[in-house]
Hints:
TIM Barrel; about 10% strand; 16 helices
Amino acid sequence: xxxxxxLTRAFALAVTVVAVAxxxxxxxxxxxxxxxxxxxxxxxxxxxxxxxxxxxxPPNYATGLPRTQVDLPKMEKDGLDAVFFSIYVGxxxxxxxxxxxxxxxxxxxxxxxxxxxxxxVAPDRIAIAYTADDVRRIHASGKKVALMGVENAYGIGNDIxxxxxxxxxxxxxxxxxxxxxxxxxxxxxxESDNVWKWNGLSPLGRQVVAEANRLxxxxxxxxxxxxxxxxxxxxSKAPVIASHSSVRALCxxxxxxxxxQLLALKKNGGVAQMVAFAGYVKKTPPDSPExxxxxxxxxxxxxxPPRGGGAGGQGARRPGAAPGDSVMALYRQRMADLDVKxxxxxxxxxxxxxNHIDYAVTLIGIDHVGISSDFDGGGGVEGYDNASEAINxxxxxxxxxxxxxxIIKLWGGNLLRxxxxxxxxxxxxx
Length: 430
C-alpha cells in the first residue's frame, strides 16, 4: 500500500493531468515544449545496435535503416542528442575460458563498430565522448554524441584487467549481469525460481565494483538481482546508474526497481533512467493464441529462448545471441511482418511512461531520475517508438507542469552530473 502522502501527491497529479489534457494541442504549449527540447542535451543511456550494419556498406547507421529505432537520420530529426550504445553479449551457462574469449571478442567487435561509425563513416556528424565534458563539447559543436556502456560483464571472464580494456575502448558504464546468473553476480531472472548463485555479488564481482570506481566507469544496476544491486550501491564509492529500468510499484516486473532500491539509489547519489519499454511500463493483455503461436514458432526457428524466459522477460524481443548478429536483424524484420498479420495488444503509451517518471520524481526527487529507451532491444511505447519521437516525451512533461530546468535534468543533466562525479572519485582514488 502507498503511504498516505504519496497517495495524496498521486491524486493531485492525476487531477493536474486531467486539467491539462484538453490543452495538449495548444500551440503555446507545443512551442514551449519545442523550445525546451532544443535546449536540453537529450541523452538515452541504453540503445542496442547491430554491429554488422552500423558502419558497414549502405544502408547503415549514417544513411538510415528503416527497421531500426535509432540511427543518425532519426537522431537528427528532433531526436536524441547522445546515446549509450550497448556493448552486449547474451548470458550462457558456460564458464569456460574459450567461451569467455569468444564473448570478449564479440564485445570488442561491438566497440569497433561504434568507433568506425564515429571515426570513419560519419565523423562530421557524430563523435565519441569519454567524459561528461566531452558530451557538452561535442553537442555544442552540432554533432551527435556516441557513448558506450557494457551490458553484461560476462565477457570479462575471470580476468579483472578486462574491465580496464573495455574502459580504454570507450566503455563508460558496466553492468555485472544480464538475464541469467554469471561469474560476477546474480541476475533479476532468479526471481522466477528463487534459485541464486551468489546471494548477490561474487568475490570477483566485488572486485569489479572497486575497479570500475578506480577507472571512472559507472556501475549499472539495471539487470542484476535486487540483492546484487543493494550490495553494489553499498560498496561503490561513486554514484551508480540504472541505465534502463522503470518503477516496480507501477509495473511488477523483476527488471524494474522497487522503492527500496530507488531509495538506496537516492542515498548513493545516483540516477534511475526510466525506460520506455512497453512491457516494463504497463502490463498488457496477453497475445491472441494465433499471435503467440506464430511468435513461438519464429523464436524456435531462430534458436531463441521462449518468451518470458531468459531472453528478457515479459514482452521482451531480445534473443540470446548478441544484437550484432545478422539473425537479430532477421528476427526484427519477421517480427514486424508478424505484427501486421497478427496485431499485438495495445501497448503502453507516452503517458504511461511518464507516469513512471512522476512516481520516481515524487519518491526520490528530480535530481535522481532520467530517461532511456532500450530501442532496438525491445524498447518503445506508443508515441515514443524511435529516436525521432523524443519530442513527444518532452511535450508530455511540459503538459504535466515540469519546468525547463527539471526537463533538462531529466533528459541528460542528471546523468552528466553522475558521470562527472564518477570521474572525480576516480581521480581521487588514483
